[in-house]
Design a protein that fits this description.
The chain is built from 9 helices and 10 strands. It is α/β, with parallel strands linked by helices. It has a 5-stranded antiparallel sheet with strand order 2-1-5-4-3. A 5-stranded mixed sheet has the order 6-7-8-9-10. It starts with 6 loop residues before the first helix and ends with a helix.
């Protein structure tokens, strides 16, 4: 049977969590963990006993105070919101997301809060947005390398919108140039999954309906397993390399 933890042991465990935690009563910090102290640029022993609002950026204090007073008064205000924490030593603003719960213990009411530093999340989101922008700004080329032969190098990650745009471009190129052969070079694909394998197979099938023989070049073992389960890929030939595929398209179909 598990041994019940004493309150001091629980607080000791919570103290090392990578998420900022605090307990407040009447606007004064009664307890916080190391991560909260890091955000506030203040040792834990100095933070405890001080006003919580001192760890809020001045431009956000009126907003946070208003939310606190209305919550304590019993008004239906959101229990989570975003603002900037203030580093007491440097004045650094850190964007945070705070969730707070009121806990009644006897005659006292405590605010128990969880604070998440949004800096890393926003940096990651910006990186993803930048990556998407680069992909949108660098459309996959459809290369005419010989009379009636098109080569399409698939490089990077293909989300649903990107593969849809690519398929539209390929089919338009086949129709416009009356291509007789299409080589999809999948050597540079990243993170291929069942959806992408099915999309690639459908693109190949659509190319055949327009009269173009389709070959896949550079299929990895992982992609091969995914394509094997796709009915649309049953009639699609493949080659180990782009060079092999070029040799094959010159052979009688």
């Amino acid at each position: 049977m598990p041994v019940p933890l004493e309150a001091a042991a629980v607080l000791s465990l919570l103290g090392d969590l990578p998420v900022a935690l605090y307990v407040m009563h009447d606007g004064t910090l009664l307890w916080c963990n190391d991560e909260f102290a890091r955000l506030g640029e203040c040792p834990r022993e100095q933070a405890i006993g001080h006003s919580f609002i001192g760890f809020v950026a001045p431009e956000d204090r009126a907003f946070v105070i208003d939310r606190y007073r209305r919550r304590v008064a019993g008004e239906p205000v959101p229990d989570h919101y975003e603002f900037s924490a203030l580093g007491r030593e440097t004045g650094k603003r850190t964007p945070i997301h705070m969730s707070v719960t009121l806990v009644q213990a006897g005659a006292a009411r405590y605010s128990v809060g969880v604070v998440v530093d949004l800096t890393v999340q926003r940096s990651a989101a910006a990186g993803l947005a930048s990556g998407d922008a680069r992909e949108r700004g660098s459309p996959t080329p459809v290369l005419r390398i010989a009379a009636g032969v098109l080569v399409v190098p698939l490089v990077g990650h293909y989300h649903a919108a990107r593969i849809e745009d690519l398929t539209r471009t390929i089919l338009a190129a086949i129709a416009h140039q009356r291509a007789q052969a299409l080589i999809l070079d999948v050597t540079g694909l990243v993170d291929a999954d069942e959806r992408l394998a099915e999309d690639v197979a459908r693109t190949a099938a659509a190319a055949r309906l327009l009269g173009a023989r389709c070959l896949l070049a550079g299929v990895s073992p992982a992609l091969a397993r995914l394509l094997a389960s796709s009915s649309a890929a049953l009639h699609t030939a493949s080659a180990a390399t782009l060079e092999d595929a070029l040799v094959m398209v010159r052979e009688p179909g």
